[in-house]
Design goal:
single chain; alpha+beta; Rossmann fold; Tumour Suppressor Smad4; six-stranded antiparallel beta sheet
Length: 313
């Protein structure tokens, strides 16, 4: 019998189309004769518990655990699935959907359901920071602040890309402080002063901003990106370069690939921890920060052929 689908659905994610998403899921499963267990997240604080319940049920009946939501929902469900032995599926409901786009999963629910119902699980790379999963990126410094400001704007103005860009501009124009970090890159020491440190695990995102580390991610590494100390106007210029896909040409950008990165934070962050964003969700982690590629991949149900955006790159 085909594996049952245990779908963790966050109706608060996406563009407020929860009922049409439910209908698309139920109709596709009914047409395919597939057993469906739809678990809705009724409060943000319940997401991890619902994901863990779905994993336990899937382990019991040989099912597939599916995340239906934005990057935060996908990240939380992936955290529960990693190492469980269960296959993982995605029904993207977010704004940018880098993870699903990288792996050729359609943005519309009906198309993504067809992938779930017809394709097979293939291994995909997972990044870790202090045991926390990141599928797209993890960051500290200015970038987590930008994400928090962006979320506040979206709650007031809606989930649109122009809103995200406006929030980014407003954040960059505010006063910010540089971080002084002690890095160990594959065991080699490196001192770094930067407003933000960004560790990527998504080749498509690297390609779109014009960084060559997409090749490192394809080869099983992480992409490390940091900005040299610059003023606010220079930050805006770097944002524009990224939008035009030319960030790799900027002298103010440091970028390299590695599989293991340790970051030691100075006082007071070394004692109380620092805000770290993983796939858009901000949490406080203690120093040292240990970034690595997970030794266990996710078994993602996805098309075998490259995603159209990656194939054309």
């Amino acid at each position: 019998m085909p594996a049952p689908l245990h779908i963790v659905f966050n109706p608060g994610a996406g563009h407020g189309e929860a009922e049409s998403t439910r209908s698309a899921i139920r109709n596709a499963c009914a047409a395919a004769g597939r057993t469906l267990h739809l678990r809705e997240v009724d409060a943000p604080g319940r997401l991890q518990a619902v994901a863990q319940q779905a994993v336990r049920s899937a382990q019991a009946d040989g099912g597939v655990v599916v995340a239906a939501g934005g990057d935060g929902t996908i990240n939380a469900v992936a955290q529960a699935v990693l190492g469980s032995g269960c296959s993982f599926g995605v029904l993207p409901q977010g704004t940018f959907n880098y993870f699903s786009r990288t792996h050729g999963i359609p943005a519309d629910t009906a198309g993504a359901m067809q992938v779930l119902l017809t394709e097979h699980a293939l291994p995909v790379q997972v990044g870790l920071v202090n045991g926390q999963v990141f599928l797209v990126n993890a960051s500290l410094g200015l970038y987590p602040r930008l994400l928090q400001d962006r979320e506040a704007w979206k709650q007031q103005l809606g989930r649109h890309r122009l809103v995200a860009v406006g929030a980014a501009l407003a954040t960059l124009l505010r006063v910010h402080h540089d971080l002084r970090l002690a890095l160990q890159v594959q065991g080699r020491p490196m001192a770094l002063r930067t407003p933000t440190l960004f560790v990527g695990n998504n080749a498509l995102q690297m390609e779109q901003v014009g960084l060559p580390q997409a090749q490192d991610i394809d080869a099983g590494a992480l992409a490390v990106v940091a900005l040299k100390p610059v003023g606010r106007l220079a930050l805006l210029g770097l944002l524009l370069r990224g939008a035009l896909g030319r960030l790799g040409d900027a002298e103010q950008v440091i970028h390299f690939g590695c599989q293991v990165l340790a970051v030691q934070l100075p006082w007071p962050w070394g004692l109380r921890g620092i805000r770290v964003a993983t796939d858009g969700e901000v949490r406080r982690l203690r120093s040292p920060l240990q970034f690595s590629v997970s030794p266990v991949p996710l078994q993602l149900i996805r098309p075998a052929a490259p995603a159209p955006e990656r194939a054309a790159a």
